[in-house]
Design goal:
The protein is mostly helical. It is 73% helix and 0% strand.
Length: 473
């Protein structure tokens, strides 16, 4: 059977199917996202077979997608080890302890955004930022009685902000590469959309912080009990900050992310044995299976029962804790791999290109195409690479600098993927922070306002660089 190009209908059917399956199956009936994505992959496989592809060819597409995402998968597993080991060491409990004592509930959401943004900018990874300092901030929010979806949204928005503007970030490097612009021109140009989107989020976080009734915040007595039990269960020492320092050093020296995360985990495990009196077996269990308060030595237990808030804060992490997320990613990439193999997205995006006449329509089409890729594949890389390749020449034809395209790819790719429930980033954030994607979505303000500013600027001409002025902007 000969291979042919799919029709627009054949290209669209699997995408419509995945939206219906996830919207009704997950959104209405609460069915497993894993199984729904497998069904969507089966629908894509039927269409792929119809246009001439056999199973071996489809499986090659799946392998290519999984292979291209292995770096992200390994980072997730390493983050699981980091979370578990940092709790064993007492690093995260110490950050929670002092964070609760220092941070005012009114400024918790703003602090969550700014701190994770700073960490992500220096490390170049939103996963690492959310999985380390973000977990500590979620603990502080839980202790203070702050809305966990709001805290998670602020953490994710900050992590994406830093990831987006960091010269160490893979997507920040990938976007100008795909569009044909220069890295630092690209970063500077992103400020046009990133700054107003971030400021809008900060304003909302401040309004919420100052208008939340004090009655909804955890009582001072309960907070004091939580702090008292944390200080009983763990011993504080300045050396407990060594694991984060190791990761910051690796990022500053542009070293590979995963080895330094694992090194940080090993050092944290050793610190846990030294300062928290964990046995080698308990420290190892915390890193691999995740931390549990049952691992705490009897000599460190308080006189009364451990309050349930302690377990809620600390029972998390571990490499095995990431396996459900990894399985979900494999299911999503199976769908995306088949879709990509028979060329569905290229057909849809090429049909879109034919309707573009103005700069505003071009930017809007880029936003739509990138978000569509994010929804269909769940991958930041695919959401950047394919639209970048398809629209690159059109920006030149319109006399526009390539950094307009690279900026729009990040506004609607890097920023949007973390709020897609079945995406790599969305599943990671939900699993790591303990809040469903659709619950934190409204609070991740920067993630869905950046592309709105991109569209606005496309139609008004503000912040749009011309081709001949690219080197000057």
């Amino acid at each position: 059977m000969s291979v042919r190009k799919p029709t627009l209908m054949e290209a669209a059917i699997p995408i419509v199917a995945v939206f219906i399956l996830l919207g009704i199956g997950y959104g209405v009936f609460g069915l497993s996202t894993h199984g729904l994505l497998v069904i969507a992959a089966f629908v894509a496989a039927i269409i792929a077979h119809r246009v001439g592809y056999n199973w071996d060819q489809m499986f090659e597409g799946i392998k290519e997608k999984i292979s291209s995402s292995l770096t992200s998968i390994f980072v997730m597993i390493a983050v699981g080890a980091v979370i578990g080991s940092w709790i064993v060491a007492g690093t995260i409990p110490m950050l929670i302890y002092y964070g609760v004592k220092i941070i005012s509930p009114k400024f918790l959401l703003v602090t969550a955004f700014l701190v994770t943004a700073l960490v992500a900018t220096f490390t170049g990874t939103s996963f690492g930022s959310a999985g380390t300092i973000g977990v500590a901030i979620m603990g502080i929010a839980a202790a203070l009685g702050i809305s966990l979806p709001a805290a998670a949204g602020a953490v994710i928005a900050g992590a994406v902000f830093g990831d987006k503007l960091s010269p160490f970030s893979d997507t920040t490097i990938l976007a100008p590469t795909a569009a044909g612009s220069q890295l630092y021109d690209h970063i500077k140009h992103m400020l046009y959309t990133t700054v107003p989107a971030s400021l809008l989020g900060i304003i909302i976080y401040l309004i919420v912080g100052f208008t939340t009734p004090t009655s909804s915040i955890t009582s001072p007595e309960k907070v004091q009990l939580l702090l008292s039990q944390l200080s009983t269960l763990f011993n504080w020492n300045i050396l407990l900050l060594l694991p984060p320092v190791i990761i910051f050093y690796g990022a500053f020296r542009k070293k590979p992310t995963v080895p330094y995360m694992l090194l940080s985990s090993v050092v944290a495990g050793i610190l846990g044995m030294i300062f928290q009196k964990f046995s080698l077996k308990s420290a190892f269990t915390g890193i691999i299976k995740g931390f549990n308060v049952s691992l705490i030595p009897e000599s460190s237990l308080p006189s009364g029962d451990i309050i349930k808030e302690i377990s809620t804060l600390l029972n998390r992490g571990g490499m095995m804790g990431m396996m459900n997320t990894v399985l979900l990613i494999i299911c999503a990439l199976s769908f995306a791999g088949i879709l990509s193999k028979y060329g569905a997205m290229e057909v849809i995006l090429n049909s879109l290109k034919n309707k573009i006449k103005t700069v505003g329509q071009l930017v809007s089409s880029t936003v739509f195409a990138t978000i569509l890729m994010a929804l269909a594949t769940g991958s930041s890389y695919m959401a950047i690479l394919i639209p970048g390749e398809l629209f690159k020449d059109m920006y030149k034809e319109k006399g526009l600098a390539a950094k307009n395209l690279s900026r729009t790819l990040e506004d609607s790719g890097t920023c949007v993927v973390p709020i897609v429930p079945w995406s790599i980033a969305g599943t990671f954030m939900a699993g790591t922070l303990g809040v469903p994607t659709l619950s934190y979505l409204p609070w991740a303000v920067m993630c869905y306002t950046g592309f709105l500013f991109a569209i606005l600027f496309g139609f008004t001409g503000f912040g749009i660089a011309k081709l001949e002025k690219e080197s000057d902007n």
